[in-house]
Structure to design on (279 residues):
């Protein structure tokens, strides 16, 4: 999205300030990349997001505004607190502020259509039959879905949706929030939906760690829980684990999934944990 803004000439190094509503991951990515490229960043984030997430964004240099929004910023007039605040900030000085607006930005879709989708196809040697992911902006499910269905129209694209008043950072319940514009463009790409409760999602965090040595996030756990409960006789099933668990020590402690000591021990033993610059 940053590259797209620069190519269109609306994002200018040494001049523009990036402002964006986020539930976490996009805010971290934007702030980190912006810092490397010399941009200042202002992030609007729901106060319910984990303390670790907000601390990472601040440590990367962003100015952070917190709202009493859902864990995934709501879309829709009268409910979109984080998005409305970011839009207000951007419109106050349009010559200076640039908002990528991940909830409507076609570059979000294209990133997954050109990147994540081909990666999955290649790594499965074209054998993937089912694809599971949650929905926040809709970029992942529609971008990956569009690519996979072009390769094989029989691939099933399955959306995972959390319960109302959920605790899954980055996910959206469509009874509580309108659908983002980016998702609405291609919502028919989704073949089926699976609902998941907070209890089901948090209930598999330790299971995944014990079986596979992976310390995963609540959203990754929710995908795994949806995959478990969906009836599939055979095939090659792919689910997106969009985050590891490093930003959720406080959440897991609050939800009594792990004590802080148990979390630290799990992190020390966890497999496939990449090195990152901000922690």
């Amino acid at each position: 999205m940053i590259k797209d803004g620069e190519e269109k000439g609306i994002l200018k190094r040494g001049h523009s300030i990036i402002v964006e509503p986020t539930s976490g991951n996009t805010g971290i990515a934007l702030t980190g990349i912006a810092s490397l490229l010399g941009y200042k960043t202002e992030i609007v984030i729901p106060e319910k997001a984990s303390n670790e997430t907000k601390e990472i964004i601040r440590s990367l240099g962003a100015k952070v505004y917190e709202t009493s929004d859902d864990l995934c910023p709501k879309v829709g007039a009268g409910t979109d607190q984080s998005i409305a605040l970011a839009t207000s900030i951007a419109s106050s000085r349009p010559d200076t502020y640039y908002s990528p607006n991940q909830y409507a930005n076609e570059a979000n879709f294209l990133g997954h259509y050109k990147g994540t989708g081909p990666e999955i196809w290649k790594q499965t040697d074209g054998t993937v039959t089912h694809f599971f992911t949650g929905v926040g902006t809709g970029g992942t499910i529609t971008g990956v879905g569009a690519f996979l269905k072009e390769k094989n129209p029989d691939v099933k694209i399955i959306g995972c949706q959390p319960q109302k008043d959920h605790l899954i950072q980055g996910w959206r319940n469509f009874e509580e929030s309108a659908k983002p514009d980016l998702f609405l463009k291609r919502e028919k790409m989704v073949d089926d939906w699976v609902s998941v409760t907070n209890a089901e999602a948090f209930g598999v965090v330790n299971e995944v760690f014990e079986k596979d040595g992976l310390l995963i996030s609540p959203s990754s756990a929710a995908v795994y829980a949806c995959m478990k409960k969906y009836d599939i006789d055979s095939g090659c099933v792919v689910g997106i684990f969009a985050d590891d668990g490093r930003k959720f020590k406080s959440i897991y402690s609050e939800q009594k999934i792990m004590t802080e000591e148990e979390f630290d021990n799990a992190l020390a033993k966890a497999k496939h944990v990449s090195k990152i610059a901000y922690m």
